[in-house]
Write a structure and sequence with these properties.
Number of strands: 0
Structural class: mainly alpha
Helix content: 55-70%
Strand content: under 5%
Largest sheet: none
Radius of gyration: 17 Å
Order of helices and strands: HHHHHHHHHHHH
CATH architecture of the largest domain: Orthogonal Bundle
Number of helices: 12
CATH class of the largest domain: Mainly Alpha
Number of domains: 2
Shape: globular
Length: 207
């Protein structure tokens, strides 16, 4: 079933939001890391322009390690908790420069040592930044996998571990973008558009 679902979602070519596309294009673990931090508890329509303003300041850890916090906070406003996120980005950038020789950690265990970085962000850095197979589970991935009946879990972290056991590794790099895009366009949290869903024949409709 999962082979058919993945292929139909790829064939559907649903439009991606600008922030989702930007994360696909980065191919840079540091940029994926700091952009993902901005996106937490903030919708993509707000995160995308904030990310572009942040990138005007710089694109490397050294550009942010000693950045004025007010300047960065102003650039990323109005993302949620923008002052805390500015402080967080500066702190982790300083650690990368001063303690890690400008190298971004490439394991979940090391990434989550950064203040405020959880498994979702760490997995996204591995997948989109390093190209290392990892499963980033956000609300869309969690919701759709449960609606399909592919997993039966209570929260995104449970979903990640369930998918690690069940989802073929060959799909780990693609599944986040496919399901996030599907969740934003069709399988929405409220009033999902089941009539136009390209994978409705496989859905258990656990809504």
């Amino acid at each position: 079933m999962i082979d058919e679902i993945v292929q139909k979602l790829k064939d559907a070519k649903q439009p991606r939001r600008e922030f989702v596309q930007l994360m696909e294009e980065f191919k840079n673990p540091y940029l994926v890391l700091i952009a993902c931090i901005l996106s937490l508890r903030t919708n993509d329509l707000t995160t995308y322009p904030a990310t572009l303003r942040m990138l005007e300041i710089g694109k490397e850890p050294k550009d942010f390690a000693y950045c004025d916090i007010e300047r960065l906070a102003k650039a990323i406003y109005p993302v949620g908790f923008y002052k805390n996120k500015a402080k967080q980005i500066i702190e982790l950038s300083r650690i990368i420069v001063e303690e890690l020789d400008n190298k971004i950690p490439d394991t979940i265990e090391d990434l989550i040592k950064f203040n405020g970085v959880g498994r979702k962000t760490a997995n996204l850095v591995l997948a989109k930044g390093f190209g290392i197979p990892a499963i980033c589970v956000d609300v869309h991935v969690h919701r759709i996998c449960n609606r399909l009946g592919y997993v039966k879990t209570k929260n995104p972290e449970e979903t990640e571990f369930a998918l690690r056991k069940k989802l073929p590794v060959k799909y780990w790099l693609d599944i986040n973008t496919l399901l996030v895009t599907h969740g934003q366009n069709v399988c929405r949290p409220i009033k999902p558009q089941c009539d136009i869903c390209p994978i409705k024949e496989y859905c258990a409709k656990n809504i």
